[in-house]
Design a protein that fits this description.
Blueprint lengths: L4 H6 L9 E3 L5 E4 L4 E6 L2 E2 L7 E2 L11
Antiparallel strand pairs: 1-2, 2-3, 3-4, 3-5
Length: about 60
Amino acid sequence: MAISRDLLEILACPACKAKVELKPDGSALKCVACRRVYPIRDDIPVMLVDEATIEAETANQPEPK
């Protein structure tokens, strides 16, 4: 059972309140603003700041000025 699209629409990052997106491999939810990654365990998103990791920016994004 995967995370439903309806659930994804209402979930928000508990740290910064921004939108979260499902990672391509389906293993976690990633915040689009602060880049925190929340794991999904047994089809349940663990939306706890203490459980999150912060993902590094991808190499194809421009450097901040």
